[in-house]
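Quick one, probably user error.
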């Protein structure tokens, strides 16, 4: 029998090569959204498809299987090594179920669907996107059949983003959120204390906005020697290595809070990536166990910290310096209230904390129905518009402000949306514990000193990578299994003060 350390070293070399290709793919995708000229799209689609196929082939060849089979069950491995073998085996089992031909077809269809979605959204014409949506739904259903599932084909897709989660587990959680949040939104609508945010409607210098975002990111602990911030239409975070984590933001010249919240959100994701176990770079362990847990980090920083009153008390003096004369009459309390205004609206990415999950629940209901085959793509706009009326009480004027607003379905990312709502829930649960463990956390925020909070998050969440799953991480960090209650408590307490009746 070959000794374990030699086999383990071979496995590391093998999966390291796969990780290199994956990170090169991520770099091409980053460039596609940040710098690539429009005419580069055709060739880029082919490059992405070729590399995706190559990555799949390299990872799923007989050698990986041989090494995994030889290492599984060995008792002389460390707990970390055992976790690495287990997680790699999980990824391999999932990957071999999908034939390479489907991986290629999917990547090509994704590129075409993305380009058409951009045009369809520009023209606000769902009919133009409809055949591409149908292709992505069909290919995703095919993928789900290969992956296998117990109850719903949607579960096979959701599992890729939130392992162990199913549509039937999500429904009661989402029902609770929808019920309690719609009561809260209705109560807020009746409040007589609506904030005056008219001061925000000014021209905010773009350079100063970016400067401010970079300063806040630095205070949070984002390492600019291991990352950079650029602009893109849709802000995102991507990782080429634990020490090369890129973020993007977008700038609205009429609303500096937009770039701020984007940067703090992506900064939260990036802090997680920069805090993953460095010794496991180029392996499955240097990754989050789920997108929901990843999103908990961005939401905690963006909403709970970055939209708190102590945060604005800290940064108002600096904002006054960066935007001379524009904020002299504005108090930190007014800024805090403006950053937390609640108004049912059309666009998910602009939604406030009280309505955000309702946007997710609507998408979850539509995409489960698409994947389960109970509705067809041509039904999407009508269904979307009627659900918007029911959940948020708003009328959708056109598809660009309705079912064409998000990139996810063009990417074939069915099962992704619920992770945003789960992120909100995990974030609030973690923060309840932070407040118990670090009684001075708000004093730190008010001084722009976030190190204590970051150390806590590194210890309880980041450093574990994929050695534990998200429910285990939440339970170990907070003493309780994941629950929607801390989030609802957080919302109800915060907004009772912001919107007294
Ligand atoms: Zn995010």
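Nope, works fine. Designed sequence:
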């Amino acid at each position: 029998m070959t000794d374990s350390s030699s086999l383990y070293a071979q496995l590391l070399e093998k999966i390291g090569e796969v990780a290199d290709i994956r990170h090169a793919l991520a770099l091409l995708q980053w460039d596609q959204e940040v710098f690539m000229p429009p005419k580069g799209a055709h060739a880029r689609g082919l490059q992405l498809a070729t590399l995706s196929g190559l990555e799949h082939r390299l990872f799923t060849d007989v050698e990986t299987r041989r090494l995994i089979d030889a290492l599984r069950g060995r008792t002389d491995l460390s707990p970390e090594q055992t976790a690495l073998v287990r997680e790699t085996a999980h990824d391999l089992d999932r990957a071999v179920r999908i034939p390479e031909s489907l991986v290629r077809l999917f990547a090509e269809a994704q590129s075409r669907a993305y380009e058409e979605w951009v045009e369809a959204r520009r023209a606000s014409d769902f009919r133009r996107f409809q055949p591409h949506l149908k292709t992505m739904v069909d290919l995703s259903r095919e993928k789900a059949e290969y992956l296998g599932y117990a109850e719903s084909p949607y579960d096979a897709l959701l599992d890729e983003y939130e392992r162990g989660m199913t549509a039937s587990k999500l429904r009661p959680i989402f029902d609770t959120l929808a019920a309690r949040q719609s009561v809260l939104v209705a109560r807020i609508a009746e409040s007589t204390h609506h904030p005056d945010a008219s001061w925000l409607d000014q021209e905010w210098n773009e350079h100063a906005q970016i400067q401010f975002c970079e300063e806040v990111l630095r205070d949070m602990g984002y390492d600019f020697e291991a990352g950079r911030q650029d602009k893109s239409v849709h802000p995102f975070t991507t990782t080429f290595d634990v020490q090369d984590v890129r973020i993007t933001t977008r700038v609205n010249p009429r609303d500096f809070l937009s770039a701020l919240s984007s940067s703090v959100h992506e900064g939260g994701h990036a802090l997680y990536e920069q805090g993953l176990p460095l010794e496991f770079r180029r392996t499955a362990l240097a990754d989050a166990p789920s997108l929901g847990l990843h999103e908990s980090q961005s939401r905690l920083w963006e909403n709970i910290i970055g939209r708190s009153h102590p945060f604005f008390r800290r940064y108002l003096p600096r904002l006054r310096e960066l935007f001379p004369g524009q904020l002299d009459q504005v108090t930190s309390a007014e800024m805090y209230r403006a950053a937390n205004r609640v108004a049912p609206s059309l666009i998910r990415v602009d939604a406030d904390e009280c309505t955000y999950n309702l946007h997710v629940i609507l998408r979850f209901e539509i995409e489960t129905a698409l994947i389960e085959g109970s509705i067809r793509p041509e039904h999407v706009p009508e269904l979307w518009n009627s659900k918007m009326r029911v959940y948020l009480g708003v009328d959708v004027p056109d598809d660009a402000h309705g079912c064409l607003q998000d990139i996810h379905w063009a990417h074939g990312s069915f099962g992704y949306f619920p992770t945003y709502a789960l992120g909100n829930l995990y974030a609030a649960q973690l923060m309840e514990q932070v407040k118990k463990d670090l009684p001075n956390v708000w004093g730190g925020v008010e001084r722009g000193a976030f190190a204590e909070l970051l150390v806590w998050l590194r210890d309880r969440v980041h450093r574990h990578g994929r050695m534990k799953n998200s429910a285990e991480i939440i339970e170990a960090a907070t003493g309780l299994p994941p629950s929607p209650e801390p989030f609802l408590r957080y919302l109800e307490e915060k907004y009772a003060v912001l919107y007294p009746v």
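The pocket of zinc ion is lined by residues 265, 269, 295, 298 (CB under 6 Å).
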